[in-house]
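W.,

You were right to be curious about this one. When I first looked at the sequence I had no strong expectations either way, so I just let the prediction run and decided to look at it fresh. Below is the sequence, 171 residues in total, followed by the output.
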Amino acid sequence: MSTIHKIVCLVVVCPVFILSGMFSESTWARNEPDLTVPVISALPKHKEVEGTWLGTVNVFSLELVVIFRICRDNQGTLTGTIDSPAQGAIGVPADKVTFRGGKLHVVAKAIPSVFEGKMKEDGLVIEGQWQQSGYSFPLVAKRVSEAELLEVLEDRSYTKVFSSEDLKQDL
């Protein structure tokens, strides 16, 4: 190998492998690739479902706000909570949260309800159906920041049903 090839390898190729995790300290000395590197999601951040989602559902001429807070636990399993401030339901744990092929499925047995929706291509909206007490209603949830959520809750005077800890919750 020529000197130029060695320099290119040391300056360009090796740092790329090291930064990408292809070689760890234990395998570097043996020049073996580290095959235990975790797989990084190929989805852009906005296409992942983790975050805060705010939607409204019209139930017999009554507009109810529904908030989904979705995150991953230490094992990487999706988990979350549901808030329905008008019903006094705050931090209701989701018993099941799945997201496959752009489809979100959330089950909360405590308020017997199910949400099934599909994420729009932009990753900012999920359109679906809220099912509760034998009824099904359309629900469109939009990805929001905690600041945007607080603004909506204040506009609707829902902040009084949340404690200060509830409003600071950031899964």
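Here's what jumped out at me. Confidence is low (pLDDT under 50) at residues 1-30, 32-44, 166-171. And, maybe more interesting for your project: The two ends are 52 Å apart (CA to CA).

Coffee later to discuss?

I.
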